[in-house]
Amino acid sequence: MRPGPLVVVGDTLLDVDVEGEAERLCPDAPVPVVSRAREHRRPGGAGLAALLAATAGGGAEVVLVTAAGDDEAGLCLRELLSGRVEMVRLPLDGGTVTKTRIRARGQTLLRLDTGDGRAPAGPRWDGDRRDAERPRGGRPGDGRETRRAVAAIREAGAVLVSDYGLGTVEVLRDALAETSAPVIWDPHPRGRAPIPGCALVTPSEAEARLLCAVPSLTPEQTARRLVRDLDVEAVAVTLGDRGAEVARRGGRSVRVPPPFPVTGPDACGAGDRFAGAAALALRAGASPEEAVGEAVDAATRFVRDGGAAAVRPSVSGTAGRLSVSGRLSVSGTAGRLPAATPGDRFLAAELDDRPRTPLELAEAVRAAGGRLVATGGCFDLLHAGHVSLLRRARALGDALIVCVNSDDSVRGLKGPGRPVVSEEDRVEVLRALECVDAVVVFGESTPTSLIETLRPDVWVKGGDYAEAGLPEAEAVRRAGGEIVILPLVPGQSTTNLIAAARAAL
Fold first, then answer.
1. Catalytic residue among 272, 344, 380, 437, which?
2. pTM
3. Bridge-partner residues for 462, per DSSP?
4. Under 8 Å CB-to-CB from 473, ≥6 apart: which residues?
């Protein structure tokens, strides 16, 4: 691993999600009326890339070099990032660029962009000149902050460039060209072309077409062409739910597929997660192919877990509990956050002002000092034994979340004849029980990833299990929880119900 932090250089925006309910149309225009709205703010652009890299696990040190203003939006950004990434703040001319999405039930209805802020053209790092003389018209401290930024780039273990065309990268372009650290360049349509010699360039398929002088090429051809045209070591063209195509100088092109089908409805921020994961992997010594493999995996899980809409850092100034994999600080009640295993989706009841997703419920219980209980299973053909188990589980704490195997998961565990009842119907029946506070469907054979996300204080299983034989036992212990094995009601099982039904035919 190269010594030094990951340094993210680029333009930071303020992203705002206004989440509400849309149950009717406006009487004077054919547009939805959004009510009961809650507002959630997070960093966008380079700020989101830095935040995700810093909270992705492993305790990576991340430095963000960006232009930030002193307006309300700029101050909010600094609060959101405080304690999580170190910021080297360059001056900003104009108002902080803010992108506001109006959303209902996870669907974006409208985006409103405001702000015209840019990093001023000077001072600029120019070789060995250290801006000792501030350019005419500059502001006190401009040169000092530029020198800090250049020093951070020189000391970096890796550099991630997120250029939205708002001037930050232009100020430091010469310093970026001189660094010995691997440079990962995440291009955007309004930014400039990457500098020659980058270790990895990560355009989306649409961005790659804009960069490539030859139209109508396949992703493989585009990636190989860009390696040559941009004079870089490797290019990874991201392909959404198809993974990524990576080509390197003097080597062949490789398609990196996603680890599982992506079901998340919101891919916003996936490129930032991809680029950050690739940068951390290259800093750790991975090859471009290995780095892209890790990045595809990270971006896929990010989309599955709700994308940028699930990133809700608090502004309390305290660091930690800030990843999409289940340690988010969640406020408010709106939104639908997917679960943390392939094919998962949170399915919570409409609960007025109570938390509406299992993750929000878990955070609310912890914030109130309560005891969170969770259990899991197929719950195919719900019977009295199930109900007894759930009632006793709920009595062990202040809220009960039930984790239900998806149809595909049940089929893999029980065989092609199961489940008898579809996952949607199983969820509806469970949600109707007074002892159940929320339900989540998971797609794997075990709910290990969900446990890591929800972090229950108590994990309950029926008496036909022993703790030593539970595949999720280690995940429960890592999350700081305990396992409780409750005795089963004799003679009650789904298998017996199915057998009795068949015998009666």
1. 272
2. 0.61
3. 486
4. 467, 483
